[in-house]
Amino acid sequence: MKDLIDFYVLKNLMGEDLEFDEALRLFELPLPILGRIADKIRRVKCGDLVTFVIDRNINYTNVCVSKCKFCAFYAKNEEEAYVLSKEEILKKVEEAVSFGATQILMQGGMNPDLGIEWFEDVFRSVKEKFPNVAIHSLSAPEIYFLAKKEGMSVREVLERLKEAGLDSLPGGGAEILSDRVRKVISPNKVDSNGWLKVMEIAHSIGMKTTATMMFGHVETNEDIVEHLFKIRDLQAKTGGFTAFIPWTFQPNRTELYELVKEPAPPTRYLQVLAISRIVLHNVRNIQASWLTQGFEIATLALKFGANDLGGVMLEENVVRATGKPFRPARVEEMVKVAKSIGRPVALRDTYYRILKLF
Q1: How far apart are CA 113 and CA 330, in angstroms?
Q2: Which range of residues forms the domain containing residue 328?
Q3: What one-character-per-residue DSSP string does 12-67 give?
Q4: What SS3 state is found at 105?
Q5: Cα-Cα end-to-end distance for the chain
Q6: Which of 88, 91, 93, 147 could form a cystine bridge with 157, CB 3.0-4.6 A?
Q7: Burial per residue of 127-138, b for 16 or more beta-carbon CB atoms within 10 angstroms, e otherwise
Q8: Number of structural domains the chain divides into
């Protein structure tokens, strides 16, 4: 077993791509062994420092023509539908900044009533009032939809939004980058190549992004490896991903509930997290999902390859729409998680620059 551990650790640290069957074999390893491999890699790549950011996720609209089967957030009728006004958004940003937020996420749906000028106006207004806040907003599907709606190229949309104040893109909308899966869970959303193309263009104009993976629904182990390889290969080409965030599908109140009644168990989460660290040799930061897993499993995740706890999330509505209880994390809780396993901890910004050590 030691030879096997050394094989995967050395492949990662040498920056060598795993073959498909080598990555698939990881799913057969005992969970403690996977944890040992991922933790060894994490220690060399990232050291012991655990990081987190103070942020707020502002869901500017719940109107979405995509109507993905895994989503409980989109408006089912006109009575439920909303679009936040610019004033409401600015107030939410102001509240977040008063709590120390340095990052604002704005994500919503594919709303046909919102054009590029709406986003430009909002982003400019946020930057005018809060120039030091990073606008880490709009997923690849939102960008793709906006380009299609406006009859513009993805590059034109991204360049205009960047000029208006958009700093980086979150990795939402990736789900599983397998079109076999996407046809089942999100048939009306951009395909895997479209998601990757938006990210590649963003990277080409100097815009950093994150990457995500939502698993625990209809995907297979092969689909997960396909997803990881696509992220790895684009990262080799552009170097634009700052972090990778795997998280588990929450089935309650979604159209997939009859098919998937329970979220993936913590063991599956830790398995996929560790495999993500082992496969993604060129992505430095792997983020634990306390939002879907809770702090106990998030603490364990720090021993399975994660080096980052994500954001405190002063607001979150998408996962909460599934009925999963939500409250923002406190800075003290983030610090406690890291220190409970003897690890140093620091507040970071969107680009993983350290702002404060605790």
Answers
A1: 36
A2: 2-54+135-146+168-357
A3: HHTTPPPPHHHHHHGGGS-HHHHHHHHHHHHHHHH-S-EEEE-EEEE--B---SS-
A4: strand
A5: 38
A6: 147
A7: beebeebbbbbb
A8: 1
pLDDT digits (tens, 9 = 90+) for 121-163: 999 999 999 999 999 999 999 999 999 999 999 999 999 999 9
What CATH number does the domain containing 261 carry?
3.20.20.70
Placement of tokens 């074999």 in the chain: 25
- The pair of structure tokens assigned to 80 is 């439920």
165 SS3 class: coil
Cα 64 to Cα 161: distance, rounded to the nearest angstrom = 20
Cα separation, 33 vs 71, whole angstroms: 34
- For residues 264 and 278, what is the distance between their CA atoms, to the nearest angstrom? 20
Q: What average pLDDT does the segment 84-104 reach?
A: 96
Strand ranges (E), 55-203: 55-58, 103-106, 134-135
Pairwise CA distance, residues 294 & 341, whole Å: 16
* Phi then psi dihedrals of residue 202, to 5 deg: -55, -45
Could you tell me the CA-to-CA distances from 48 to 45, 272, 307, 352, 355 in Å, in that order?
9, 21, 8, 15, 17
Indicate the pTM of the whole model: 0.96
Tokens of 85: 């006004």
Confirm whether 271 is domain-assigned: yes
